[in-house]
Write a sequence for this structure.
C-alpha cells in the first residue's frame, strides 16, 4: 500500500482535505453539448450538512469484519499537533498504532491505524467499528482508492486525501449525533477517490464552464480546485439515487444550478455500474459468510378490564422509567410503552377518516369505520427515531393524533418531530405554572431504574359550548403527572384540535374526542418496539442474529413492571367539580383524582408479540416471559438470575413443523454459540442520529417568530439530555397555543378565570393528584423543568417553550 498522503486545508467544513497534485487522463468522456445557464447564488453553504439521510441505516454496508494484525510503525497525520497551515493545521507523526485489516464484501481491504491513545486493542476495535460500518455504506466508486484509515482522539476535522481517510473521534461522535457520519465520509472519500481523476479533467472543467459560474455551495465556490468535486458528487448521488433525502423543491433547484455537472456525474455513475450496485440486496458476503441488517419489532401487551361503561371521563396508571442503554441510544431504535385513548365509537361503521388522510388512503384493513386510527392520545416513556436530542434514559413524550395519522402533535408549538410549528392548527396548550413542558419530551433525573411516573388523562370542562360553533365539544383532555418532585396538571388538548377534522365531513361530526368519552371496560397496554436494528450473520447453512443489549430494571421478586394501577374515571372524580365551578362559581378542591368516581382496571392477561426479522421468537420462556402481577400490574418475569435484566441478544434460526406447515423461527442462544467469524459481522449499532428528519437539529420558532412573552423577557433551562430550552412567561390566554384559537373577549375572560382558579389549587408532592403506586417508588423529573413564576406572575401565567437547542 502507498504510505504518502497529502491533506489539504479546510475553512468551512472542518477537517475536509483534498489532493489534486496528480491528474491522470479522464476515463469519463463528456460527449453531450453542454447546456449554458444563467449565474445564480450557491444553494448551500456546504453540502455536508444538507441531509443526514443521503446514506443511513436503510442502506447496506459492504463492511464485513475487522481483524487484528501485527503492530508496526506508521507515519500518520494528526491535526492536533503543530500548525502547518498548508495541511489545515497539524503535522506528521511517526508512531506504532494498533493495526487492523478491514474486509469488505466487494473484495476491498483497508488498513486501519488506530492511535494507541485509545488504551487497549479492544477499545480501539470498538471505536473503529461504527466508522467502518459507515464507510462500508459508501458506493464502491467513493471507496475505491481508500487504502488506509487514521483514527485519533480529538475534535479536529476529518480529512480525505491520497488513498486515506483521516478521523478524529471527537468530531466523529458529533457527526454521529447529528446523523452526518456517512455524509462526512461521502465528502472526504470524494477527495480520496475522485479528485485526482476528475477535478482537472477536460470533461469536468467543460461542465463547470457550461454551468455559467454556478456552484452548488459557497465552499465549492470559494475553493473550486480543491472542493468543487467533493461538494458536488455527493449531491449528484443524492439527486440520482436518494431524492427522498432532499428537501421538497431542492432537486429542481439543483438541476437548474449545475445541470452540466449533474450530467457529468451521472456518466461517471453509469461507468461504475452504480445502478446495479445501489439496487443489490443488503446481504454482504465473504467466502461462505454473509451479513445483513434485520429488525426486532412488535408489541408486548397487558390487558386491563373493568365492568363499568360510565367511567370514560379519564384514565390513569403508573409506568416505569429507566435507561435501556449504557452508553448511547442506537440508531433507528424506537420503543415506548403506553396506551391509546380513542373516542368510544363502538358499533359505529361509517368511515370516520375522510379521503386524503393517511389512514383512509393507506390502511384499508381498518375499514369500514377506521375508529381505532381516527383519533388517539398516545405516547409515553420511550425512545423514538425523530428524537432530536437522543439520550440513554427514557423520555416521556405526548403524541396526539387528531386527523387519522395525517399530522401528529407532541407539544405546545410543535408537531411530532419538531419540523412544523403547526401554524394556525389548534393543538396542545401549556396549563401548569410550575412545570415547563419540553418540545423533545420530558427528561428525568439520572439514576431512574424502574421508578414510576403517574399519569392521568382527564376530561375537564374548561370551556363553554360555543353558540357560533355548536358542533365544537367541550372536552378538554388534560394530562396530570405524579412524580417525586411534581404533582399536578401540565398541558391539555384544546377541543378545536379534535374538532377540525369534522368540519365539512358529516360522518365524523360528534364523533371526536372533543365530544365523546373513551372506552372504560377494556384497555390494552403495550410495550412496543417499533424498530431495533439487528445484524444477521449467515455462515454456511446457519443464520445468527444479534440485537443491541436492551437493559431492564429488575425488582427483588425478579420483575420488570411496565404498567400498574390502571383506573378509569367517571364525572364524579373531577369533572363535576370543574363544571360546578364554571356554572356557579363553587370552589375547586385539590383532591386526588382517585379519591372517588373511579373504577380499577384489573390486569389479568398478557401476550408476547416481539418478532425478529418477522419470525416468531422461541426459547426464551426459561429466561423471561410476560406476566400479570396481582391483577394490578404487568411486565416481565425473569427466571434466570444470571441473565435477568438483559433481553437475549443472540439468536439463530430453526425450521420447524407447526400445524402441518413448515415455519422458520428465531431461537435465543448465547454469544458463545455464535462462531467467531459470525461475531465479526455482528457489529455494534452506531448512535441514534439527532433527529431523523434532515430539517431538524433543534426546535425553532416559526419564521415570523413567537408573540413576545411578558416583559419581553426570556429564560433558559438546561436539561439532562444536554439541550437548552429558551422559554418565556405568558398570560395564559396570550400564549401562542391559545391566541391562535381567535376566541372572543367573553370566551377569553372565562377561560382565563378558570385557569387562575386552577393555579390556586394546592396539588403538590405533599398533596398528590394520585395515590402512591402499589409497587416501587416515584421517579424524579428533571429539576430544570420545575420552574417558579416570576414575581407578579404567580397566578394566571404559564411558561412556554420558545426553542430547544
Amino acid at each position: 500500500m502507498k504510505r504518502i498522503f497529502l491533506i489539504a486545508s479546510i475553512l468551512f467544513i472542518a477537517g475536509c482535505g483534498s489532493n489534486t497534485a496528480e491528474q491522470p487522463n479522464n476515463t469519463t468522456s463528456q460527449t453531450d453539448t453542454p447546456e449554458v445557464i444563467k449565474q445564480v447564488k450557491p444553494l448551500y453553504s456546504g453540502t455536508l450538512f444538507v441531509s443526514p439521510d443521503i446514506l443511513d441505516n436503510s442502506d447496506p454496508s459492504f463492511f464485513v469484519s475487522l481483524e487484528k494484525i501485527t503492530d508496526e510503525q506508521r507515519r500518520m497525520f494528526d491535526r492536533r499537533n503543530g500548525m502547518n497551515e498548508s495541511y489545515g493545521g497539524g503535522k506528521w507523526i511517526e508512531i506504532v498504532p494498533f493495526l487492523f485489516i478491514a474486509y469488505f464484501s466487494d473484495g476491498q481491504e483497508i488498513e486501519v491505524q488506530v492511535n494507541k491513545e485509545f488504551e487497549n486493542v479492544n477499545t480501539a476495535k470498538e471505536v473503529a467499528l461504527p466508522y467502518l460500518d459507515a464507510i462500508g455504506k459508501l458506493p464502491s466508486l467513493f471507496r475505491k482508492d481508500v487504502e488506509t484509515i487514521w483514527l485519533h482522539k480529538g475534535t479536529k476535522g476529518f480529512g480525505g486525501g491520497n488513498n486515506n481517510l483521516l478521523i478524529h473521534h471527537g468530531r466523529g461522535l458529533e457527526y454521529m449525533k447529528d446523523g452526518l457520519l456517512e455524509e462526512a465520509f461521502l465528502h472526504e472519500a470524494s477527495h480520496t477517490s475522485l479528485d485526482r481523476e476528475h477535478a482537472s479533467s477536460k470533461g469536468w472543467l467543460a461542465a463547470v464552464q457550461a454551468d455559467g459560474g454556478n456552484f452548488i455551495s459557497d465552499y465549492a465556490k470559494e475553493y473550486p480546485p480543491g472542493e468543487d468535486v467533493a461538494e458536488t458528487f455527493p449531491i449528484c448521488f443524492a439527486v440520482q439515487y436518494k431524492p427522498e433525502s432532499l428537501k421538497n423543491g431542492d432537486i429542481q433547484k439543483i438541476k437548474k444550478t449545475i445541470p452540466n455537472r449533474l450530467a457529468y456525474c451521472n456518466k461517471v455513475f453509469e461507468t461504475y455500474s452504480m445502478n446495479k450496485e445501489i439496487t443489490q440486496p443488503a446481504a454482504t458476503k465473504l467466502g461462505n459468510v454473509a451479513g445483513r441488517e434485520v429488525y426486532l419489532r412488535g408489541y408486548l401487551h397487558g390487558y386491563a378490564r373493568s365492568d363499568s361503561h360510565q367511567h370514560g371521563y379519564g384514565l390513569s396508571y403508573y409506568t416505569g422509567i429507566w435507561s435501556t442503554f449504557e452508553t448511547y441510544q442506537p440508531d433507528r431504535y424506537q420503543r415506548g410503552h403506553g396506551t391509546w385513548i380513542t373516542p368510544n365509537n363502538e358499533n359505529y361503521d361509517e368511515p370516520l377518516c375522510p379521503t386524503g388522510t393517511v389512514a383512509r388512503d393507506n390502511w384499508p384493513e381498518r375499514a369500514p369505520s377506521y375508529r381505532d386510527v381516527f383519533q388517539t392520545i398516545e405516547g409515553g416513556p420511550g425512545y423514538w427515531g425523530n428524537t432530536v436530542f437522543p439520550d440513554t434514559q427514557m423520555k416521556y413524550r405526548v403524541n396526539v393524533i387528531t386527523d387519522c395519522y395525517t399530522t401528529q402533535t407532541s407539544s405546545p408549538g410543535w408537531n411530532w418531530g419538531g419540523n412544523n410549528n403547526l401554524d394556525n392548527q389548534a393543538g396542545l396548550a401549556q396549563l401548569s405554572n410550575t412545570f415547563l413542558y419540553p418540545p423533545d419530551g420530558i427528561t428525568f433525573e439520572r439514576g431512574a431504574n424502574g421508578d414510576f411516573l403517574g399519569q392521568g388523562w382527564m376530561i375537564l370542562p374548561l370551556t363553554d359550548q360555543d353558540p357560533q360553533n355548536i358542533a365544537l365539544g367541550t372536552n378538554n383532555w388534560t394530562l396530570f403527572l405524579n412524580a417525586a418532585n411534581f404533582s399536578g396538571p401540565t398541558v391539555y388538548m384544546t377541543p378545536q384540535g379534535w374538532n377540525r377534522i369534522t368540519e365539512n365531513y358529516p360522518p365524523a361530526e360528534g364523533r371526536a374526542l372533543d365530544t365523546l368519552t373513551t372506552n372504560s371496560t377494556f384497555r390494552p397496554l403495550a410495550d412496543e418496539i417499533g424498530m431495533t436494528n439487528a445484524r444477521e450473520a449467515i455462515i454456511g447453512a446457519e443464520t445468527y442474529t444479534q440485537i443491541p443489549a436492551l437493559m431492564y430494571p429488575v425488582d427483588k421478586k425478579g420483575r420488570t413492571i411496565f404498567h400498574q394501577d390502571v383506573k378509569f374515571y367517571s364525572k364524579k372524580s373531577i369533572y363535576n367539580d370543574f363544571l360546578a365551578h364554571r356554572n356557579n362559581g363553587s370552589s375547586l378542591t385539590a383532591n386526588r383524582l382517585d379519591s372517588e368516581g373511579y373504577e380499577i382496571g384489573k390486569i389479568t392477561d398478557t401476550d408476547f408479540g416481539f418478532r425478529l426479522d418477522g419470525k416468531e421468537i422461541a426459547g426464551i420462556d426459561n429466561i423471561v416471559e410476560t406476566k400479570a402481577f396481582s391483577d394490578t400490574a404487568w411486565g416481565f418475569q425473569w427466571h434466570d438470575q444470571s441473565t435477568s435484566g438483559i433481553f437475549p441478544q443472540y439468536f439463530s434460526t430453526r425450521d420447524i413443523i407447526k400445524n402441518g406447515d413448515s415455519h422458520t423461527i428465531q431461537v435465543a442462544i448465547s454469544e458463545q454459540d455464535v462462531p467467531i467469524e459470525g461475531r465479526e459481522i455482528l457489529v455494534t449499532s452506531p448512535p441514534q442520529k439527532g433527529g431523523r428528519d434532515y430539517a431538524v437539529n433543534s426546535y425553532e420558532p416559526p419564521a415570523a417568530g413567537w408573540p413576545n412573552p411578558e416583559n419581553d423577557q426570556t429564560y433558559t433551562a438546561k436539561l439532562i439530555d444536554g439541550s437548552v430550552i429558551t422559554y418565556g412567561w405568558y398570560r395564559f390566554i396570550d400564549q401562542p397555543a391559545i391566541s391562535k384559537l381567535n376566541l372572543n373577549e367573553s370566551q377569553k375572560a372565562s377561560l382565563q378565570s378558570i385557569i387562575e382558579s386552577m393555579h390556586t389549587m394546592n396539588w403538590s408532592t405533599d398533596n398528590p393528584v394520585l395515590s402512591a403506586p402499589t409497587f416501587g417508588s416515584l421517579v424524579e423529573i428533571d429539576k430544570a423543568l420545575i420552574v417558579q413564576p416570576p414575581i407578579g406572575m404567580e397566578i394566571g401565567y404559564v411558561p412556554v417553550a420558545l426553542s430547544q437547542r
